[in-house]
Amino acid sequence: MNLNAKEAAERLRIPEKTLANWRNKRVGPPFRKFGRRVLYPLDQLEQWERDQTIETRK
Fold it and tell me: Which residues fall within 8 angstroms of residue 23, CB to CB, at 6 or more apart?
């Protein structure tokens, strides 16, 4: 399953423009581009979310 940029931004609770900036800088979650259409594979987006976890020590 793939999410479009709007759906991915909603899932991450960030502005869609932030995703566009990340794409331009080649940071952020993996994406695929088909012409002007941008898609975020859900499994890769979920993995990227897990990879962003920072554990703290107690």
Answer: 31, 38
